[in-house]
Amino acid sequence: MNITKAYVIIFLVVIRTNSFPNSNGLASSVIETSKNDVCFVPCTIRYGTFECFHDCFLKDYRDGNCVHGRCCCTK
Q: Span of the secretion signal (predicted)?
């Protein structure tokens, strides 16, 4: 019984440890760079440079552009 319990604990620790790198996906929804103040919404065919610029302008940024597939705003 103790061996089974030890295997279950080890299995759960391994699963928990492997899930940590995947949690960074949530943190990457807002990316800050030195050139751009904030990057957020992914750019697509329907959400392009014009829509990005418009959303950035509405959020009081002076410029917005699609950079590496993300809408990035600059103050």
A: 1-19
Whole-number average pLDDT of the chain: 75
What average pLDDT does range 29-39 have in this prediction?
64
Q: What is the pTM of this model?
A: 0.52
As a whole number of angstroms, the distance between CA 64 and CA 51 comes to 9
- Asked if 28 contacts 40 with a C-beta cutoff of 8 angstroms, the reply is no
Contact 71, 47 (CB under 8 A): yes
Report residue 41 as tokens: 């919404």
| CA–CA dist 74, 1 (Å, integer) | 60
